[in-house]
Hints:
Chain A: GO terms for molecular function: ATP binding; ATP hydrolysis activity; transmembrane transporter activity. Chain A: Residues 4-225 form the ABC transporter domain. With 225 residues, chain A is an alpha/beta fold. Chain A contains seven helices and ten strands. The relative contact order of chain A is 0.20. In chain B, the strands form two sheets. A six-stranded mixed β-barrel of chain B has the order 2-3-8-5-7-6. A six-stranded mixed β-barrel of chain B has the order 12-14-19-16-18-17. The model of chain B has no long low-confidence stretch (mean pLDDT 83). Classes of the chains: A alpha/beta (225), B alpha+beta (839).
Amino acid sequence: MSILSVKQVSKTYQSGSRKLTVLDEVNFDIQAGDTIAIVGPSGSGKTTLLGLCAGLDSASTGSVSLNGQSMENLSEDQRADIRSKFVGFIFQNFQLLPTLTALENVMVPLELKKRKDAKQKALELLTKVGLGNRATHYPTQLSGGEQQRVSIARAFANEPKILFADEPTGNLDTETGEMIEKLIFDLNKEQGTTLVLVTHDLELAKKTNRIIHIKGGKIQEDTYA
Amino acid sequence: MHNLSWILKMAFRDFRKNVAKLLLFVSSIVIGIAALVGISSFGDNLSQDINNQAKELMGADLELKNNQPLGEQPTDSIATRIAEEINFASMVVFPATDDSRLTQVRALAGEYPFYGKLETLPESAESSFRSGGRKALVEKLLLAQFNAQVGDSIKIGELTFLIEGELQKVPGQTGITASVAPAVYIPMEYVEATGLIQYGSRLNYLRYYELPSDQDPELLKTKYEAQWDEARIDADTLADRKRSTGRSFQNLSNFLSLVAFIALLLGCVGVASAVNVFVKEKLASVAVLRCLGVSSWSAMLIYLTQILMMGLLGSLLGAGLGTLLQFALPAVFKDFLPVAVTVQVSWTSVGFGVLTGLFVSVLFALLPLLKIRKVSPMATLRPEAGETKISRDPLRWAVIVTILLFIFGFSFYLLKDWKVALGFTGFVVFAFATLWTVALGIMWMIRRFLPLSLQYPIRQSLANLYRPNNQTVSLIATIGLGTAMISTLFFVQNQLLDEARFAGKEDQPNMLLFDIQSHQVDAVAGRIKDRNLPIMQQVPIVTMALESINGLTKKANEDLPEEERRSRGLYNREFRVSYRDTLIASERLVKGNLRKVENQGDSVFVSFDQGYAERTGINLGDEIIFNVQGRPIKTFVGSFRDIKFNQVSTNFLVLFPENVLNNAPKFHVLITKTANDRQAADVQSEIVREFPNISVINLGMIVETLEEILGKISFVIQFMAFFSIITGILVLISSLIISKYQRMKESILLRTLGASSGVVSKINTLEYFFLGSLASLSGIMLSFLATGLLSKFVFELPFRAAFKEAFFVYLAITLLTVILGWLNGRKIVKVAPMEILRE
């Protein structure tokens, strides 16, 4: 079953009198449980594609369906509702809410789903990523690796059907990066989540079972492991 | 939208880390709310006190007043006690020093006041004064002015009185009225003997009644109103006095509330500006929340809730401070108060202040907060996507319109006149728009034309004015408006005083002698000429009343429906009229001609002051019959004059031609110019000694009295304007603290690149110097405009820019900004670069 379907998707921006095409008629489908890496040089359109797939932005033309739900005619708030139900995110710069503790950060997606066991579940997840004892710390009191682990716990908290990760190890040293990679893949396997990764790192990309190469806004290559 | 409890939970979580920052936001409104609550509480208490002390304020149940003896009145037989008073303006002389001054002499018979008392020092003087003998009670200000004391003598007209006591408080009298016309009480039995009751004396005859408890003064007034109107008698009851006193203090309280409201508006700009920075800092978090599935309104509500909490806190703080502030207000307003004011918490005012504070903080915070709705979740991946533009957002325009409606509504509530409220709203919008435009224009010019050849610290400090998240525009607007308010008050006050002093410098008269009887004219003129002084004007004055206008008598006017009725003042006024066939320097003809009466039987054409004619609906050609001492004189309105009333000159609302009033009973005014104050004092002393009925006003005394009154008024207004300055300072401090982190990063970057802490300090100081200069200069320019408009349209004076005073204001405001900036910058320079790296 296809969890993400991208059909003839283009994204253009108007820059003064110039029209800038960032994505040009991109097509692909992703099956539930797949792990996919989108790779490409800087400015190739990877992040734009990720944003469109996750419903963070809308395409200029074409359609994106997430979990069978077409996104193109939805308002931003309707897309937000879909994200809260099915989608998880991991960002390169962690994107934790600075005024919330680690525990509260992980609780947010659970609370949005009105889960009564939000605190207990968040604590379990934090323990799982090795931060059970740092639950009451604020993001500024955590190292980069620890922040990313909180971010992973948050991403898996609402048991998403699909997880989007934008350069998840881009801001980390090699050793910490490897630990984070392992954590993502282990949790992914455990929860049966679909994983879509955007990365420069070909070694990381090779750990997925499908790699989409993108350049100049077009898919150059789509290879399966 | 997510459920409210989650939103509140998130708001609280975010709030924990933002308390200090948010406190700064609301600090801007605390002072404005405090001023509003303080004034409003004071006004409430004052109005209660006026009600409670109304009897003491009036001293009687009913008061009748006329400019001729009252005769027997129907109320005389009803009263339990009656007192009589004749009051008039007259010179008094202190024989010990030969000093003299114009005062209000009050000849009293009976036990007035029936309620309250004349407060005297010694206390016994109040009763011993009434026990017989030539004794006087003299206003304390007058005694202080001439260094006289109880036991000394005071000469009033032909008689000398013993100063029995010093008057501390007279019913209904305030410090201001005491400054203008200090009172001297004498027993009624001696008033004739003073020789001051003669034709031309402007006498007021008053009769005070104490009524039995079963008699309602209001009913009595209604019963005899027609009769008293016919006889031109003013009847004043307790209810009238409560109304008129209450109304004037309500006006004062509303005016001061308006000044407080300006301080609050300045604070609101501070709130909007600080929330703007707060929102910019929160955009990344909002983008994350949006990614996690939070709806746009829920995200906005998380932050709006925090503003609401802080708005409530700020309003409560302001209301508390305002309640404390009113303890100071009786001292500030002491010269204006006719009653003793009690100080107590006015819960209505507190509630009103809290609600207003809450409303304005939310309203003004909404402008930047609305941006949150537009934050794209894409900003998590691309920070530049977080830049939201809401200039076309209809909700933003709805908020702007609500703000304008709020300003209009609030000022209307205070002023009760939609035109004035609209004018005030227009002025506020104009002032903000001007300052906003000036600030934006300056920033644009700096960006566009900043020359590379400038020294680095100067260039960097100027460039800092348009750094990201800068608050340059809002600071220029708030500090500028505060400066504009203070300077306008300062400039107007100076302009009025200058004008009065200026009159003495040119070839203008500076001494006015009035109440001269016809038989004294030659002798008085002789004394003036003996001293080689010029007789600049010698003017006869005839008193008269208006009998009918175009056949409409007072009685017929009263019977007309209100919308058709002419001003009652026209019929009640005692006109002091002169006659001549030419214009004098202080007037010019604007309509019609001055027409002479050359033959008996010629129609009499009179000339009216244009402003007065406009106010009372008099037109050219109207037929007016004046009653001159019982004899009707038919006249026609032949011309209008524009009169400059701000000169020492005799100006008349109505001017007759020659050959009509020449034989009517009259008195005279004589105007001269003395060389200096010494000579003025000598002339005054000689004239008053020889002709005690003649009153003398010299320009020195006018300036002195004006200075005293303006000093008192301006103290009150400056006290209120002070709130605006404090608010401006708070906005400045809050902006400094908000931008501290950014400044710290800039400072560290500069130091990492090799700049010494001296250079960094110099850049910071220069930035504040430029900011302070721009704000104060913009404010001063605005105040020049306001002073110019006030001079032209209100005071009708030529505008003279007070550059010296302006420079003083500029220095003070700029220095204050630099000092505050320097205090803030001192810590920034000391931060070790590593600290920011660790963050």
